[in-house]
Amino acid sequence: MNIVILAAGQGKRMKSALPKVLQTLAGKPLLWHVLMTALSLQGKQAKTSPIVVVGHGASDVKDFLSATSLADPTFAKVSTVFQAEQKGTGHALLQALSKLDPNEATLVLYGDVPLTTKKTLNKLAKLADGVRGQNSALALLTQDLKNPTGYGRIVRDVEGSVLEIVEEKDANLAQKNIQEINTGIMMLPTNSLKRWLKALRASNSQGEYYLTDVIAMAVKDGVPIRTTQSDAEYETIGVNSRDQLAALERVHQLNIAKELMDTGVSLADPARIDVRGTLECGTDVSIDVGCIFEGQVTLASGTKIGPYCIIRNSVIGEGVSINAFTHIDGAKVGASSIIGPYARLRLGANLANDVHIGNFVEVKNSKIASSSKANHLAYVGDSIVGSRVNIGAGTITCNYDGVNKHQTIIEDDVFIGSDTQLVAPVRVGRGATIGAGTTLTKNAPPNQLTLSRVRQISMQWQRPVKAEKLPSKKVVKKLVIKSVKVKK
Length: 488
Ligand code: UD1
Ligand code: CA
Prior knowledge:
CATH class of the largest domain: Alpha Beta
Oligomer: single chain
CATH topology of the largest domain: Spore Coat Polysaccharide Biosynthesis Protein SpsA, Chain A
Strand content: 25-35%
Number of strands: 37
Bound molecules: uridine-diphosphate-N-acetylglucosamine, calcium ion
């Protein structure tokens, strides 16, 4: 099938410099959601590929498409046509006409209606089945809404056949009472569509070429019009304002939360989790409130995530505890490890099993082998840390000389005393102990105590004493008056 996505509108009501279709839902542009559905609907083998009508902010939209196709090559198939002036939905579709395969039906999607499912669109396509040329059916996705304000209304005759679609702004009072609305999504016979679009007139209150006017033309041509509705209302909700975008985000997140719970994940509160990407979970994973998952995140079985954690593009092993307020980005955490509270694992933090990273510890581009610990206030960057290493509070790997990054190697069974600075490049040999407060600038040999410290001395000393401050005359007066009052 041909798929055309209308995405040239400005989205005035968003009051944003960003074109509306690039506003994000679950961390991805609205248009991304529509394209993912379109691409999966056409399938990998399809001769046709999605066509996006761009106009307002066209270069931004094109930039987004090319950036996305770098990461996901299936997006490279997507093409665009330019609508220089936004003269309405019918005019928008007209721009794509020459690209349509006349032997395939045409599905129209909207760049600002992000959550329509493949299942619903397949149902719509089936309804228009056999669409070849002029005399086949036109399928419309409609929706019964309690509050239909703002949408085009489906006008039917007494027998229930669709006659036309009337826009809110052109509707009379009786038509405004109709609760069945046009979602905008429709499947049309391409040959007839070409004719209808060319016959459109902008004789309406908005002076626009309405795509919806083709319905009355189809009726006139005797083309059967069939309608269907989606399983859920949110599938057809369009985003016009930030308010609607926020509301749809909550609906979408709640759906994701329900899916997670269906697969056996415990959520402290399904209304307080945000997944902006793909979250894969093993069995008996539990997630406390306020957590955000971005990109591709895997949580193996038995993982416990404390409240208010942010985890992005990371793999968390079996039975790991991530405690409150931990931030993890581009890291790998081995089984049975304990991370946080208040820990930060950055890009390239690669932890083996049973590693403990405690409060205010930052790990970047470092490999830490099993059963090693850095429990308090430390920075471990560009390092290779062995097994059973203890990194004391306040330890810092000084990896950066202002220009270059250097590596620190800490071998197995090392004990690093508190407040140590390891000035890289530097190596601490197996079993070494580094005394607290050491600034290590040379390699430390294995199995010995190394420390750099000024010798401790003690002496007699008089601590300075603060001179007692006498109250000023004014204050004294006030105090006297006050005390007199109290006496009364
Ligand atoms: C449209 C429908 C209305 C329907 C509603 C559903 C028409 C005339 N009206 O109204 O019946 O109930 O959607 O959400 O079709 N666009 C362009 N070029 C243009 C104008 C719009 O590409 O010149 C794109 C927009 O970017 C948007 C989509 O078409 O993605 C819909 O446009 P919008 O202005 O939001 O239409 P509505 O007034 O919501
Ligand atoms: Ca709209």
